[in-house]
Design goal:
The chain is of the alpha+beta class. Helix content is 61%, strand content 15%. It folds into three domains: 92 residues, Ribosomal Protein S5, domain 2; 46 residues, no CATH class; 139 residues, Butyryl-CoA Dehydrogenase, subunit A, domain 3, CATH 1.20.140.
Length: 292
């Protein structure tokens, strides 16, 4: 079953004093491109996150957003910047001597100075971080996969309908193509009949001209290849793995064969059928762009 590359999922997990929220957003992309935005303490796990995501989402522009939520236990603790505090104390004592002050240095004054007291991320046990991260990440991935699968089912239904319509157009084209040569032969005979008294018609030369025209208009190879590509396309739609790139390639091949049919057409009705076929192929190509 094919999957769409468009999806969104969210997961949350909490253990002890650590709470993480993971959001994943995916859109169509030619390759698999994974971007991660996460708190600094998760940087050592970035490669592991990419590997875990890449194993389940093979293709698309994948953005992973990880945030640390407030919890019962604070995620950061205040710490003293001792060198800076000592520098302030020395400065205040010098000021006391300079200005003959004897009130002492209030603790509140010292603590109020910028960066004397700083917030520092509390250390978290690495196994605990991995446990919470994996739980939240797996929830988000499951939600994304569910949405991509639902989108994929809708895309599959649309592609199946358009493939059936393309097969119908192909059948009409295959029926019309031989008639073009027959009608051209008849028109040629009618024109020659008008000039029968002016010159003699060489039957062999006439047969050669008809044969040359038939060869120039022959699209049997193109229609056969087109039918083969359609069969391969349907077969890929039944695969479980990611087949978006293969479908994209086949869509290009189908369009190439249709273009050749159009270039060989010497008949307005046949050209109209090919134009209809190409319009359907364009809709197929647009849908394939979003298949994983």
């Amino acid at each position: 079953m094919i999957k769409s590359m468009t999806g969104y999922g969210k997961g949350q997990a909490r253990h002890g004093g650590l709470s993480l929220t993971v959001e994943i957003k995916t859109v169509n992309h030619r390759f698999g491109d994974i971007g991660i935005k996460a708190p600094r303490f998760l940087l050592p796990l970035e490669n592991e996150i990419k590997k875990r995501v890449g194993e389940r989402l093979r293709r698309g522009k994948i953005d992973v957003f990880i945030s640390q939520e407030s919890s019962e236990a604070s995620s950061s603790v205040p710490v003293l910047n001792r060198p800076l505090a000592e520098a302030y104390v020395n400065l205040f004592r010098q000021m006391e001597a300079w200005f003959d002050l004897r009130d002492g240095i209030p603790l509140a004054l010292l603590a109020a100075q910028r960066d004397v007291v700083q917030l520092q991320e509390a250390s978290v046990d690495p196994p605990q971080v991995a446990q919470v991260l994996h739980e939240a990440l797996d929830q988000a991935l499951a939600a994304v996969e569910q949405m991509r699968a639902a989108e994929g089912r809708a895309t599959l239904d649309d592609l199946e309908a358009r493939l059936s319509q393309s097969e119908e157009f192909l059948t009409q084209i295959k029926l019309r193509a031989p008639q073009v040569v027959d009608e051209w032969r008849e028109k040629l005979h009618q024109r020659l009949e008008r000039f029968r008294g002016d010159f003699e018609v060489d039957p062999q030369r006439l047969a050669q001209e008809v044969a040359l025209f038939a060869d120039r208009c022959d699209i049997s190879e193109e229609t056969a290849r087109f039918a083969s590509h359609l069969a391969q396309f349907r077969e890929l739609l039944r695969q479980e793995e990611a087949v978006g790139r293969q479908l994209d390639f086949l869509a290009q091949e189908l369009n190439r064969e249709a273009n050749t049919m159009g270039s060989k057409s010497n008949d307005a009705e046949l050209t109209r059928m090919v134009v209809q076929l190409k319009a359907e192929l364009e809709k197929i190509r647009e849908q394939v762009q979003n298949v994983e």
